[in-house]
Structures are given as C-alpha cells and as structure tokens.
C-alpha cells in the first residue's frame, strides 16, 4: 500500500509538472548514480549556493525546485521554474526513472571517483536505463560527473579518465570532474546547470584530457583516436573490460531496505545457541503417581 502511494505521488507530481509546463518551458534536471556519490550535496550546493550541514542520505526519490528570473531577451517572462529530481539509493529505486525523466530533461549521472570499482558497473547500468527510458524518442541530454576528484587514486588517473571518456562518447555525453573542495570545479558545475536552465548552449571549448588535471570533455569534443586503445587492444567498447581487470567489480551485496535492521553478531548469544543446539536430547520418563 505504501509503495502504491509513493508511485501515485510521483505520478501526480510529474503530471502537474507537465501541465504547468504547457504554457512555458520548465526545465528538469534528474540526478542518478552511485549510492553515496554526492548527488544530494551537488543539488543543495546549486540551489542554496552552500553546503548545508544537516544533509541526510536520500532514500527513494527526492524533489526540489527553484524559481529564477530569465535573462534579458528571453521570451519566457516571469519566473523560470526548474525541477530537480534525485533518485537515491543507487540502483535500488531505478524503477522511478521513467516517471521523472522526459526527453527534454538533463540526466546527470554522478559516479564516485574515490571508489573506482563501482565506476564501470554503475555507469553501464545508468546509461542502459537512460537508453531504455528514451526508447524510440530522442534521448535526454546526458552529463557524467566524476565526483570526489580530490580522493581519486592518482596513479590510476589515466586509466579512469580514458575509460570514462570511452563510455561517454557513444552517448554524446558531457564529462567532467567535481570536488566540493575545489571552487573552480564547483563553479564549472554551476555554469553547466545554469546554461541548461537558461537554454543556452555551453561555450565551445577544447577538451581537457590531461590525466594530471580534472577532466572536462564537452559533448562532441572527443574522438576514438584521442582516447586511444585500451591495454590488450580493442576499440572503445573494450575499455570497460580492461578497467575491470584492474578494478574488479565488488561482490554483490544483499540490498537492505529502508527500516530493515542489520543485526550485529553477538558471540556470547551465538555460543549459547550452539551449546543448546548440540545438547543431547534427554528422554523424559513419565512420572509415577
């Protein structure tokens, strides 16, 4: 019953957004990606221009919106409403994606550079989900953000960067790194989102591919020749496999649903249980009255 209410609420919110967008353009930005990759912080830093101290992990789907004044010459008039959706919990709530995503939306996939083993499986999953949602319609604009750049293992920066570029290019996705401790990267993120909101194309710029610096690959600015061949040979499609040889995919873990308690081992209790289990069964003689 609770699940039905959640879906009904999501559907109503999405329908309301579509109806209100009938008279004017109301952009949507949908954040998905690795659990704990910093999606909530990114959204909050854009909306509130600072990082709140009391942020909690997002469970399920979260919605926020902003109102801003269109730039001079924009014929929208009045206040421009932008819808921000976040699908939290990693892949657990991915079924909500078709409800909140539209072809005109920007889809932002956030990956965690500090946990390289999660990069390829999570990116493959969300790119596949976005493609499935688009179907025969035009795909949404895709932006891939490598977050926590400051914690990325520097010795593997070239492998990580080339793999991400090889995975982003077939989807014509923009790719760049971000860190909450780097003001220049924060401003870069704000600029990309703001230009999308105002329906302005991003300024033409050359790709920044130096692995010793944060990547910035504008949409359509990369090429297979620039990315190169992975160790062992092959084309763009061979990079994920080469990456996994260095960073094997972590073993699948059972998903713990919200509210479900994870019990810690209790050695004393466990020992007593084993002792009780192994006790011989005593035959009880009937009492004589």
Automatic annotation (TrEMBL):
The GO biological-process annotations, alphabetized, read as: intraciliary retrograde transport; intraciliary transport involved in cilium assembly
* An annotated GO cellular component: microtubule
> Which species does this protein come from?
Plasmodiophora brassicae (Clubroot disease agent)
In terms of one coarse class, where is the protein primarily found? cytoplasm
Name of a matching Pfam family? Roc
Describe the family membership recorded for this protein in Swiss-Prot or TrEMBL.
Belongs to the dynein light intermediate chain family.
Membrane-spanning residues where?
none
Provide a Gene Ontology MF annotation, just one.
Answer: dynein heavy chain binding
Which InterPro entries does the record match to this protein? Answer: DYNC2LI1 (IPR040045), P-loop_NTPase (IPR027417)
Gene3D superfamilies in alphabetical order: P-loop containing nucleotide triphosphate hydrolases
SUPFAM superfamilies in UniProt:
P-loop containing nucleoside triphosphate hydrolases
Which keywords label this protein? Answer: Cell projection, Cilium, Cilium biogenesis/degradation, Cytoplasm, Cytoskeleton, Developmental protein, Dynein, Microtubule, Mitochondrion, Motor protein
Q: Where in the cell is it found?
A: Cytoplasm, Cytoskeleton, Cilium basal body
Protein name as it appears in the record: Cytoplasmic dynein 2 light intermediate chain 1
Q: What is the lineage of its organism?
A: Eukaryota, Sar, Rhizaria, Endomyxa, Phytomyxea
**PANTHER family attached to this UniProt entry:** CYTOPLASMIC DYNEIN 2 LIGHT INTERMEDIATE CHAIN 1 (PTHR13236:SF0), DYNEIN 2 LIGHT INTERMEDIATE CHAIN, ISOFORM 2 (PTHR13236)
């Amino acid at each position: 019953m609770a699940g039905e209410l959640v879906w009904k609420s999501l559907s109503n919110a999405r329908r309301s957004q579509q109806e209100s967008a009938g008279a004017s353009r109301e952009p949507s930005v949908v954040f998905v990606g690795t659990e704990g990759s910093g999606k909530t912080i990114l959204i909050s830093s854009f909306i509130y221009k600072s990082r709140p101290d009391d942020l909690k992990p997002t469970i399920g789907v979260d919605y926020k919106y902003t109102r801003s004044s269109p730039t001079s010459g924009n014929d929208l008039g009045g206040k421009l409403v932008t819808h921000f959706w976040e699908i939290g919990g990693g892949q657990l709530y991915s079924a909500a994606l078709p409800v909140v995503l539209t072809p005109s939306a920007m889809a932002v996939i956030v990956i965690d550079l500090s946990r390289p083993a999660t990069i390829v499986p999570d990116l493959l999953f969300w790119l596949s989900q976005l493609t499935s949602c688009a179907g025969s319609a035009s795909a949404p604009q895709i932006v891939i953000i490598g977050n926590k750049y400051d914690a990325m293992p520097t010795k593997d920066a070239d492998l990580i960067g080339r793999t991400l570029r090889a995975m982003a290019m077939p989807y014509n996705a923009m790719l760049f790194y971000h860190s909450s401790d780097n003001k220049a990267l924060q401003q870069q993120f704000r600029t990309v989102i703001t230009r999308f909101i105002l329906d302005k194309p991003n300024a033409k710029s050359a790709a920044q591919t130096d692995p010793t610096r944060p990547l910035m690959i504008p949409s359509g600015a990369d090429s297979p020749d620039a990315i190169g061949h992975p160790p062992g040979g092959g084309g763009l499609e061979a990079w994920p496999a080469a990456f996994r040889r260095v960073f094997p995919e972590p073993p699948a873990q059972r998903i713990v649903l919200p509210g479900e308690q994870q019990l810690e081992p209790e050695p004393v209790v466990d020992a007593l249980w084993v002792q009780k289990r192994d006790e011989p069964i005593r035959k009880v003689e009937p009492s004589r009255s």
